[in-house]
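Final report, Chapter 2: Outcomes

The project's central promise was a pipeline that accepts a single protein chain and returns its three-dimensional structure in a standardized token representation, suitable for archiving and comparison. That pipeline is now operational. To close this chapter, we reproduce one record exactly as it appears in the project archive, with the input sequence first and the structure output second.
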Amino acid sequence: MSDSPVTDLPRVLVVDLSADFGGTNARVLALMKKFPTDRIGLATIRGSMIAPELEEAGYSVYYLASGKFDPHILFRMVQVIRDHGYQVVDTQNPQSKFWGSFASFFGSAKLISTLNSWYMNEHPKYSLRWLIYSAMEFATNFTLSRYIVVSGEIRDAMIQAGIPETKIDLICNAIDLDVSSIHGSKKWLLEKYKLPYDSVICLAAGRLAWAKAHDDLINAVSNAREKNTNLFCIIAGDGILMEDLKKQIDQLGADEFILLLGHVDHDELLTILKSCDIYVMPSRTEGTPVALLEAMALGKPIVASDVGGIPELVTHQEQALLVKSGSVKDLTNALMRIAGDAELASRLGLNARERVLANFTLSRQFESTKESYIKALQESK
């Protein structure tokens, strides 16, 4: 490789072996669409929910297998890298990193691992997933050029784990949301779910997993209803805890005021978000959540836990009410406070919208990501 500096954008293969649609997938979709179609492509599995939109926009999409554990993924990814001249491989989740590390080695490409969350916080400590994902992340660093992390908390965790700070690029998530193109109204939401006209509706969106703490939210809403019977909660998302959460709602007798929707496509979710009164994110761990940025862009008052990159996005009592993660009492009080104070809700929502428009744009994220790709390519073999 020449010693002259690399200034042109390298050819990048983004690896996202997921058939779900969550914050990571939304990030990949939005960021890829900022790149020229001939400089970036997607390696994924059949059933990917972002692949059709990228194909329609003219981007190359490579379907490697039907499932993320198929061993054919490795050989097919190596072939894609070699045949199409990809110079950088950017992996988006543990399975993608596993296959991408070997494929980048055999395909002579640079490897970047993008961490949208930190697995040692994502799952209960010493659980099977905690052990497997943590071991997988570090065991696949034999070809790693750089990390991209989406929050300061993840960066600090990586440094503590022994990763040199010079190999870590902190690039927060971002959005460019055309609010005027999103349909929806409070009246529409009330009619769709047959709720009373004076309802105060809070929305939580995300996969139903331990890290998202929907169990805490269900308890908090049930508690808050004892003093404010106008409060209703919609939870949008699917995941391994669906049946557990249904059982919890049934045991609390909360099925009339807590609605568990299951999977909702992104366009409909944005419509619900635009129509609700409060956005709530009670997570046990987060990166810089795209869903929170979307709520900010739509001017929604927010109640969220003070974990991960959330305090980097919003400040307590300026753009949101932040609560201690795991404190059902604090979450209950915050929901009651914001549901009962229209002036506070309006101020928080306005401040949140102003902040996201000023600081979390896709153009800024694109430039930072491009620089990270170029730095990876400049590093010696």
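Archive annotation: The radius of gyration is 21 Å.
This record, like all others produced under the grant, will remain available to the consortium after the project formally closes.
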